[in-house]
Amino acid sequence: MLLVYTQKITPRITYVFKHVCTQILGLPVGFTSKIEEFVAHEGMKLSYGKQSLANEVFIQNVDLLLEQGMNDLEVKVHDWDGVPCFFAVGETSSIPFDIFAASFYLLSRYEEYLPHVKDKEGRFQASESLAYQEGFLEKPVIDIWAQKFRQVLSNKFPNQKFPKRKFTTQTIVAVTEAYCYKKKGIVRVVLGLLLDLIRFKPKYVLHRLQVMTRMKKDPYDIYTKVIQFLKKYRVPMKFMFQVSDFSTYDRNINHNRLELQSLIKSVADYAEVGLQPGFYANQKFAVLKEEKKRLEDIIKRPVKSAINNHYNLLLPDTYNHMVELEFQKDFSMGYPEALGLRAGTCTPFLFYDLNFEITTPLLVQPYAINSEAFGKLKENEIEYKVLEIKRQISMVEGRLISVFTNKDFSEYANARRNFSILKILNEIQ
């Protein structure tokens, strides 16, 4: 066990030390504010404060983990042996910056609580983040810092053994619209045909008519193909279905339709199924509660996972609603418009509510790749970017999560390229 001395044990200190030391390094951690107990401890020990005490690893702190609420912080990024870091401290510190304050700043999404420019969807943009502006968005910096911190501990306490992690992958398929044309009702079919004609899209007119007359399979009906791929290559995959009411923002077929319920049940036989909340569920607790119940009624089991990969992630409200409804995992932590790690880590972490200064039980699963971001890149850049992110995450033996949609594997997208990327991500020859 690593014993940590600090003059004041705050919820922020407890939270971030447990993530860096326990979640990433696999090292149990204890805390004390009693100097006598700390000095008498014969095992690994670390002091976190303004000056060192005895024969320990010493991390000089900044004030962030001793504060409450949010302040407009000045953050200057420096280089630490080729790795970006911030919150620099004095030379007496075993590490030249406050690794725990910097990690907390990224994990808590501190910058998203501060004033920022939103995109047209009302979302926090990748371009507004420190990581994007300083060029480390595609690096799991917290995990890299943790590995270097592990070396500092090993140099001081050479007899300490650390458990090894293993590089893993997870693919999410977000199903916003289960079908492109099928089972959408006569009014929507007619309006869709008129819009396709007005916009002069003869291919879509033809496909719509062929699907309606059962001469062609619906383009978004890729589930058999994807599940066959999943079974053949044993790819860890989750499907997140939307069961929202029809609205301007949510355009799936009605959740009461037997075709949709049958589809969800059949997919649930091969992969875990979770919820993709609709626009209003993201904003209103009662709607999220209803959508969770709908999906549970369909699959006849508790729904534990969710993803919001399109609408604004309202912090802390979105996550607090999930906690209250007993969701266990969330896969929304990423940017749909950019590849990279929104919270600076590829290790799942508990959500910390800055408003109430508490650690919640919701386990946030950060994704690094969202297929929506491919549209911002040149075709010959996509595979290179994916490979580089995979390399960065595999170097720290982390977890690489990617998000696709059912449309990505249809004829309306580059399905061959996307299946190829799935193979690359999952090391399939």
Automatic annotation (TrEMBL):
Q: Which InterPro entries match?
A: DUF7033
Q: Which residues form the DUF7033 domain?
A: 95-183
What protein name is recorded for this chain?
A: Polysaccharide deacetylase family protein
Protein species of origin = Salinimicrobium tongyeongense
